[in-house]
Amino acid sequence: MSMLDKENCGKMLTALGVSSMLFLSSTAYAASPLLKMGSRGREVSQLQQHLKEANVYNYTVTGYYGSITRDAVIKFQRQKGLVADGIAGSKTLAALNGTYTTSRGTSSSRLLKRGMRGSDVRELQELLKAKGYHSSSADGIFGPRTEQALKDFQKANGLVADGIAGQRTLSALRNGNTTVNRGTSNRLLKRGMRGSDVRELQELLKAKGYHSSNADGIFGSRTEQAVKNFQRVNGLVADGIVGQATMNKLRSASSSRGSSPSNKTSAELISWSTVNALFSRGATATVTDVNTGKSFRVYRMGGIHHADVEPLTANDTAIMKSIYGNWSWARRPIIVNCGGRNIAASMNGMPHGRQTIRNNNFNGQFCIHFLGSKTHGGGRVDPDHQAAVRRAAR
Hints:
Shape: globular
Number of strands: 6
Distance between the termini: 77 Å
CATH topology of the largest domain: Pnp Oxidase, Chain A
Order of helices and strands: HHHHHHHHHHHHEEEHEEEH
């Protein structure tokens, strides 16, 4: 290749936001991958986890780079003053990870992970030892024990527990206010554990409206699900494991409350023609899921044969997502409070169609059916929706 050809290729790559070092040298290249629409794999999963941490991505970590991930990247890029192209290159990944890549392609503060060696690994181990998470010698070798110690620290301090030490994790380790591991007196709580600290956890969950069973000090499946629901609604990593970040949020007066399923609400069975006038376009209402007791607000943006609605805010979307887990067309019995009346209804949980609210983290609308309402496409009464409506009335 001639020098002119190399120069033209370099200009073209620079215009695309890619360092010409990637092309001109086989030994000097950026450490970060270029992630974009269609990308898959662990790097995409890690990107989504960091986007969740940055509060711009509130969906399940899938490992697939689709339109939702692209939109989250664009939102983050705009916040950071980067080119908002929806492509996660070295600058975007650096801003998320707290590192940056030099013109020679080496990181000035490299991500530390299993298999690495060096003085920076030794410093990491010493920081983990000082916090009580690492009991082995600081030998500068990042092995499985160091990885587990790092994950334990990350979980306890509300970080993405991926066992990779970026600038966020290292900054937290150097922070004197982070959680110190003092054994069972401040242990991570998870399924299978027992004790007074588990009982305290259950009592906190009950007080917040997420746990309706007895506080028996046994961390079982119901306690785990209650923890996950609380974490999802309050913007934490929903892994069902209780570290200090989750405990602090539970003890905080500002954390979002759930609604215990034991708190039953009676509902009227009202025909769609009447509801259509009560719950008019542009109105808001509160939806309560019958099975979980959780409530969130919606905005009616349209619909002729039934109500087309959107979650009112990002927090309302988070509550709805905690009810479904994954978005689904499944029908669920609900109670819609509108104009002071509780009305039996049914909803699905799949974003589709158009949207009018752009900052609620819900890419589209969803449907709420009432007694005698019909589908848009076929103009028919949906038997599954009607069965859910009648369950809500009961």
